């Protein structure tokens, strides 16, 4: 699991592949939701950026006072009737002063 400091930008990247061929394919929609360590919604449904065929990124930068802990991004990718929801975990650590 990747670790980040407060206010450091987290880059979340996912690939959208067809089940039958495993080929990368573009999604009709690609959204990201960020959840916090107490299962609270931190970022509600934001568009992910397409970076290549079937590849999407979302950038999350926490605020200075964000609570340290394990966060996750639910990435919602939809193509026609194909629905994928990969989950990416990352940790925001407390700095030692």
Question: What does the secondary structure layout of this molecule look like, with pairings?
Answer:
Layout: E1 2-5, E2 9-15, E3 29-35, E4 41-47, E5 49-52, E6 55-61, E7 69-79, E8 82-84, E9 87-93
Parallel strand pairs: 1-9
Antiparallel strand pairs: 2-6, 3-4, 3-7, 5-6, 7-8, 7-9
- Tell how many strands the DSSP assignment holds: 9
Describe the global form.
elongated
Radius of gyration, in angstroms, nearest whole number: 14 Å
Assembly state = single chain
Order of helices and strands: EEEEEEEEE
Number of helices: 0
- What is the CATH architecture annotation? Sandwich
Class by SSE composition: mainly beta
Overall mean pLDDT score? 93
What is the CATH topology assignment?
Immunoglobulin-like
> How can the largest sheet be summarized?
6 strands, mixed
Strand content: over 45%
The CATH homologous superfamily corresponds to: Macroglobulin (MG2) domain
Which bin fits the share of residues in helices?
under 10%
| Low-pLDDT residue intervals, each spanning 5 or more residues | none
CATH classification class: Mainly Beta
In whole angstroms, the N-to-C terminal distance is 23 Å
Overall number of domains: 1
What does this protein look like?
By secondary structure, this protein is an all-beta fold. The protein has a single domain (2-93), classed as Sandwich (Immunoglobulin-like). The strands form two sheets. Strands 1, 3, 4, 7, 8 and 9 form a six-stranded mixed beta sheet that branches. Strands 2-6-5 form a three-stranded antiparallel beta sheet, with no helix packed on it. The two termini are 23 Å apart. The chain has strands at residues 2-5, 9-15, 29-35, 41-47, 49-52, 55-61, 69-79, 82-84, 87-93. 0% of the residues lie in helices and 59% in strands. The model has no long low-confidence stretch (mean pLDDT 93).
């Amino acid at each position: 699991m990747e670790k980040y400091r407060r206010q450091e930008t987290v880059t979340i990247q996912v690939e959208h592949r067809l089940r039958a061929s495993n080929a990368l394919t573009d999604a009709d929609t690609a959204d990201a939701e960020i959840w916090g360590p107490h299962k609270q919604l931190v970022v509600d449904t934001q568009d992910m950026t397409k970076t290549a065929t079937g590849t999407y990124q979302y950038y999350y930068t926490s605020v200075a006072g964000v609570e340290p802990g394990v966060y996750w991004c639910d990435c919602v990718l939809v193509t026609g009737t194909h629905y994928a929801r990969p989950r990416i975990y990352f940790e925001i650590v407390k700095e030692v002063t």
